[in-house]
Specification:
About 35% of the residues lie in helices and about 25% in strands. By secondary structure, it is an alpha/beta fold. The structure holds nicotinamide-adenine-dinucleotide. Nicotinamide-adenine-dinucleotide binds next to helix 1, strand 2, helix 3, helix 8 and helix 12.
């Protein structure tokens, strides 16, 4: 199955971003100074843009802000309500996509993966999905993805993603892992910059589920946030870090806990994001490793950086003929230059 081909990043590899909201726009900014990956395609709910020579991040962001879609870009923009399907067909040069899409409903990302399989496109897909049940749906597509020649890396944001990978690394000191505790602090100045992220977080609040949160109008979200002073505090979330660490053979999922606080009115983090990995060493000592993200790093930096690091790793796997489904806990991300 594997060949000895490798990916050279001497010339920029053409990549795309699906979803151009908070994370999609940050992704375009992250890629702008990079020479190994070039953003040539972007899609949102109302259109897509493609430019083989490279899309300009500022132009995409400004046009999206003015007209609500990158499809309104003069050179290379197309308005469409089937933007993902049309872009896959229109941009055969794209070798990898970051899926910065809302997973609303909870089956949406799996349906996008099926769309790629059905299209005959071959390449690398990376998502930053959060729910365990959403990753489980992708597991069911494992052999279809492999047969289609797609290398799909799931759970490659911050949590799951960066912190899950850090837990996998920290586990190496121990003979047995007793607990993995992830606590995140997110500060965003304005919830409307990350509508899907906030709705998906609300879906974890008592009395809510994914469908109820999805159907809230923007006014209802704002009214709900008014009652909490803009804060969303979450405990024992259904987060895919658990299944990813279990699949990687590191720890049973019931020993992984995720919770955190999101402040939707303040760019400053309400607490420092960290993962604590407690285990027993071969000598019988119990200890805890803690990995804490710098408070100055934004959610967007901690999601988009890893997502493209995993996309680069995925491109190398793909070039070697290694297809199928992988998670952020089993592959080391590469650094994109
Ligand atoms: P957003 O609401 O700001 O933007 C969503 C974008 O997707 C919009 O541009 C919208 O037009 C587009 N879109 C919606 N339906 C579409 C369709 N059918 N076809 C094409 N485009 C479509 O979203 P966001 O806040 O940037 O979040 C994106 C995702 O990232 C969410 O699912 C969120 O859970 C995830 N996320 C993950 C992490 C992590 O650490 N793993 C952290 C934050 C966010």
């Amino acid at each position: 199955m594997s060949s000895n081909r490798s990916t050279s990043f001497d010339s920029p590899v053409p990549v795309g971003v699906l979803g151009f909201g908070g994370l999609g726009q940050a992704a375009a900014r992250v890629l702008a100074p990079k020479r190994e990956l070039r953003l040539v395609a972007a899609a949102d709910g109302k259109g897509y843009a493609r430019r083989v020579a490279g899309l300009d991040a500022d132009t995409c962001i400004n046009v999206y802000a003015q007209s609500g879609t990158v499809g309104a870009i003069e050179a290379g923009g197309v308005l469409s309500t089937q933007s993902i399907q049309e872009l896959i067909e229109a941009a055969p040069e794209v070798r990898g996509y970051f899926l910065a899409l809302p997973n609303l409903p909870n089956t949406f990302m799996a349906s996008v993966a099926r769309q790629f399989v059905a299209s005959g496109w071959k390449g690398v897909l990376v998502d930053a999905m959060k729910r365990t049940s959403a990753v489980e749906q992708l597991l069911e597509l494992r052999s279809e993805l492999a047969e289609a020649g797609i290398t799909y890396l799931t759970g490659c944001g911050a949590t799951p993603g960066l912190l899950t990978a850090a837990a996998a690394l920290a586990a190496q000191s121990y003979a047995e892992i007793q607990a993995v505790e992830i606590t995140f602090g997110v500060g965003i100045a304005n919830w409307e910059a990350y509508r899907a992220t906030i709705r998906e977080d609300i879906a974890h609040m008592p009395g809510y589920d994914v469908d109820r949160a999805r159907n809230l109008s923007d006014e209802e979200v704002a009214a709900l946030l008014d009652t909490t002073d803009g804060l969303i505090s979450l405990e024992n979330m259904e987060h895919a870090d658990d299944i990813m660490l279990e699949l990687a053979g590191i720890v049973d999922r019931d020993r992984v806990t995720v919770g955190g606080v999101v402040d939707t009115r303040n760019a400053r983090k309400p607490l420092s994001t960290n993962v604590r990995v407690t285990g027993r060493t071969f000598e019988g000592k119990t200890s805890t490793h803690t990995f804490t993200l710098g408070d100055e790093t934004s959610m967007a930096a901690n999601v988009c950086g890893p997502a493209f690091g995993y996309l680069k790793a995925g491109l190398e796997l793909h070039a070697r003929g290694i297809y199928g489904l992988f998670t952020a806990a089993e592959i080391m991300p590469k650094f994109v230059r």
